[in-house]
Amino acid sequence: MRCTSKMMAIGLAACTMTALASAASAQVVDVDVKDSSFAPMDVGIAVNDTVRWTWSGIFPHSTTSAGGFAESWDSGIQSTGATFDYTFTAPGIYPYYCIIHGFDNGDGTVSGMSGHVSVFGTSTLELLGPVPGTAGKSNKFSAGNAPGNATVYFVYAFSTGSTPVPGCGGVTLDLRGPTLFATEKADANGFATFSVNVPNAAAGRTIYFQAVTTANCDVSNVVKNTF
Question: How much is the pTM?
Answer without folding.
Answer: 0.88
